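Q: What does the predicted 3D structure of DNA-binding transcriptional regulator, LysR family look like?
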Amino acid sequence: MEMSQIKYVLSAAKHLNFTKAASECNVSQPALTKGVKALEADLGAPVFHREGRKILLSDFGRSMLPHLQHIVDEAAATQILAQNFRLLEKVPLRLGVLSTIGHVRLARFLAQFEKSNAGIELSVSEASAPELKDKLSEGEIDAAFMTVNEDLENEFRTRELYSERYVVVFPPDHRLGNLNAVSLEELSGERYVDRLACELREMVMAVCETKGVELYARFRSEREDWVQAMVAAGIGFAFMPEYSVTLPGLMQRPLVEPVVERRIAAFTVPGRKHSPALDALMRASSSFAWPG
């Protein structure tokens, strides 16, 4: 069964005349008639009854028409999708972003990317690092922006974007505002807002235990907006990546002794062919003027 044969049958069914159908399909009548007979042979039953020069649809042919039309419609839709894909028009691109990454600077990058690649449809979803890792491996997302660690570097292709320090965030008029930088020892006994989603949380807590720093968590949350809101309300201070602080009015100082930093990178699956849209995203991420 060939696409040309299906088109011949549909045209003949519309005109109930092989001559008109041949003219519409831009082929000779013998060629069209031969194609119709070949398709009938493949289907195993006549699509038309011939009565001299007159043709009529058989009951079998009438039942086949919707299916044949569907084949033609699907083929046309596929061609349009393929053309759009080549031209980077309406190409879906799925980006996963670690939930703790600051959205303000990331939004600037995505806005510039969209402006330069207006035909690409981009979806962004937030998740934890383990969830993003699974989605990337399973092909549910095309790329992920996450914090670099050894396990991810060993499993995925890594393109580093920027690094950022951890800072101590506190409300206005807090005593820490008198300092240029804050060490862990200076935080011992301070009221604390615990960011449960922080990927470096366990490391910081371990250092606190080693140094004998006691932190009393007055509030715990996995949501960045709630953490910052509670800090602003005076509940306590919080550790945050410097580019994730978005709430106006919050004060921040660099965390020292120890200095804590994280590296943000774009991760893709090695050996998995990039779509044109993903290639465009990777190029843009390399050339963008990231902070730091």
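A (community wiki): The structure tokens above were generated from the sequence. Residues 43 and 285 are 53 Å apart (CA to CA). The two ends are 61 Å apart (CA to CA).
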